[in-house]
Each structure stands twice: as C-alpha cells, then as structure tokens.
Amino acid sequence: MTVNGAPLIEMADVGKLYGSIRALQGISLRVGAGEVTCVLGDNGAGKSSLIKIMSGVHQHDEGTYKVEGQEVRFGSPRDALNRGIATVYQDLAVVPLLSVWRNFFLGSEAERGVGGPAKPLDIEGMKRIAKAELLEMGIDLRDVEQPIGTLSGGERQSVAIARAVHFGSKVLILDEPTSALGVKQAGVVLRYVVQARDRGLGVIFITHNPHHAYPVGDHFIVLNRGRMIADRAKSAISREELTSLMAGGAELEALSHELERSTDRSLAAVGHELEEEAHELGIGRTPAGGS
C-alpha cells in the first residue's frame, strides 16, 4: 500500500562508506503502509548501517532515499522522527527506574495551561493516555506507575511500540526486537508487530531469525556483507528457502561437503595409525593359512 501513490519509504541503489570500508552497496527497497518488511542478515550483513541511514543517525553516500515520494537526507534522528519515522532499538532507550507512563512520554511530555516558560506537566493526563494507548494495543498493565524495569522484555518492547504509534509514526523500525526474548515473550512482541501493521503503519522488522520473520512478514529482504541477495514477496518464498538464504545457501552446502571430505581424510589417517600400532604389538590379523 502506498500513500498518495508513493511508498512510505523508497531506497534506490543506496550505499554507505566508512572511510575505505564499504558497509552497504546497491540497496533498493520499498516500504508501504500496512505492510511488514523484514530485513534479515547475519552479523556484519549491514543491517545496523541500513537502520542508521533510515533513522537519520548517518547519511547515505550513494543512491537516493525518499520518504512519501520526496527525496531526503536527514541530519539527525529528530529530522526522521518529524517525518514520521520512529526506531525502537535493541536497548529500547528506556529508563528502568522510571515509571511506565514517564517512559511513554519521555522527551515529549504533555503540559497544562498556555503561555509562560515553565508550564506544569499534565501528569494525570499522561497517565490516562499511556494506559489507554497500551490497552488499545492489548497491553493491560495493572499500574502505569510501576517502574518499566519490572516489566518483562516483551512487555517493554510492546510499550516502546505503543509509544511510537501514539506519537504519530508512519514507519516503525524495529531493531532485533525478539533477539533476547524467550519463545513466549517473542510471540507477544510479534503479535504487537501485527497490530501495528493493522493500524496502517509501515513496519521494518530487522532480525536474524527467519522463524520470527516469516509469520509476520509481507516482504523479505536478505542482506549479506552489505549487499542484497534476495528481495521477495511472501508469496514467492517459503520458510525453508528463507532459512537457506539466511544460512548462506550455496556457501553452507560447499562448507558441508568440505567438512565431509576433511572428516573422511581424518578417519582414514586414524585407521592407518591404528593398523600400524596393531602390527607393532603383534595383534594384527592372522595371515590366511596360518596356524
């Protein structure tokens, strides 16, 4: 789905250099409203560099980056946020000892009254909004006054997602949201990813786990050493094919054959050594016809 005929995010042949190191090359992708685009890759594939360009931390060196059809070059994460692009990083950027509602409004606190340089905060209003927004996402907390550090990893991720939705994000970038979670908590986060998509957001789900990506993804992009090796719609790829691409595919098969040959040679060498030792100890096979 597109907005006014243009995708929410569109990249064409984007590249990134860090000195003489090429982190990204020839990256092209489109993110539409109400879709989950999964970007997969192992460590060093270029996922972090891609996130940083999208979110305004770094600028691209090659290609074009468009938001709703307009070419952009963000100078800061605030620029990206002002264009409706919110990023939920792996470390979540929450303050564990602060309450849930304070973290929900951190950096964007609501105030009461008009005029004056020091208006009072609308504390009751922020508590009410935080609880209502979390409840709408299916997160029923007993008390938004409790420190966010007392929540499970999945619940903290969900609060971060609900915060991004509340503040008008059109694109939600999730950086490895399930990497440090158990099976049950990962399932909780994936459910909220689907809810964000159903509310019309364009979701970019960064992960190295195809088993988490496939159930929620509409489109899959696989990176390897800074290059795209796959760009497929869900209808054009199976979970097994996605896993194979993620694992290295042909590279993994070649390595497997090499290890098999290496193992065969090692076993043959061990067998030869055992035969020699047995001969020296006089426990070899009795020659045919011997007594």
How would you explain this protein's 3D organization?
- By secondary structure, this protein is α/β, with parallel strands linked by helices.
- It folds into two domains: 9-97 and 169-247, P-loop containing nucleotide triphosphate hydrolases (Rossmann fold); 249-285.
- 38% of the residues lie in helices and 22% in strands.
- It has nine helices and ten strands.
- It has helices at residues 47-54, 77-82, 100-104, 123-136, 153-166, 183-198, 210-216, 239-247, 250-281; strands at residues 9-18, 21-31, 35-40, 62-67, 70-71, 85-88, 171-175, 202-207, 219-224, 227-233.
- The chain has a six-stranded mixed β-sheet with strand order 6-7-8-3-9-10, with helices on both faces. Strands 2-1-4-5 form a four-stranded antiparallel β-sheet, with helices on one face.
- Strand 1 (9-18) and strand 2 form a beta hairpin.
- Helix 5 runs parallel beside helix 6.
- It is globular.
- The protein starts with 8 loop residues before the first strand and ends in a 10-residue tail after the last helix.
- The model has no long low-confidence stretch (mean pLDDT 85).
Keywords for this entry:
291 residues, alpha/beta, Rossmann fold, 2 domains, six-stranded mixed beta sheet, four-stranded antiparallel beta sheet, 10 strands
Write the SSE topology.
Blueprint: E1 9-18, E2 21-31, E3 35-40, H1 47-54, E4 62-67, E5 70-71, H2 77-82, E6 85-88, H3 100-104, H4 123-136, H5 153-166, E7 171-175, H6 183-198, E8 202-207, H7 210-216, E9 219-224, E10 227-233, H8 239-247, H9 250-281
Parallel strand pairs: 3-8, 3-9, 6-7, 7-8
Antiparallel strand pairs: 1-2, 1-4, 4-5, 9-10
Helix pairs in contact: 5-6
